[in-house]
Design goal:
By secondary structure, the chain is an all-beta fold. The chain contains no helices and eight strands.
Length: 105
Amino acid sequence: MPASEVPASEAPEPTMDHAAMTPVDVTIVDFAFEPATVQVAVGQTVRWTNEGGQPHTVKSDDGTIASPIVLREPFEWTAEGDAGTSIAYICGIHPSMKGTIEITR
């Protein structure tokens, strides 16, 4: 049976090519994560870059994200978990700096 005639219920689910996904960039400027909230897919990378002169870290409340001090080198983390998950994070040095990652698919 040609692929065009395969019933939808039997067709394979489309898969994402995680390597082809563009990283989501978060910039650390002054004492804020910009943007403060990002949406990513499972397997997509979030990349934090410090554009200021102060040292900062990226640390999630649940421990899934833990960077060394982010000064000049970007820090990358790849999203794991289930769609619908929300991960809150802070700067461990400046806890008033807060951000959120929403895993959407």
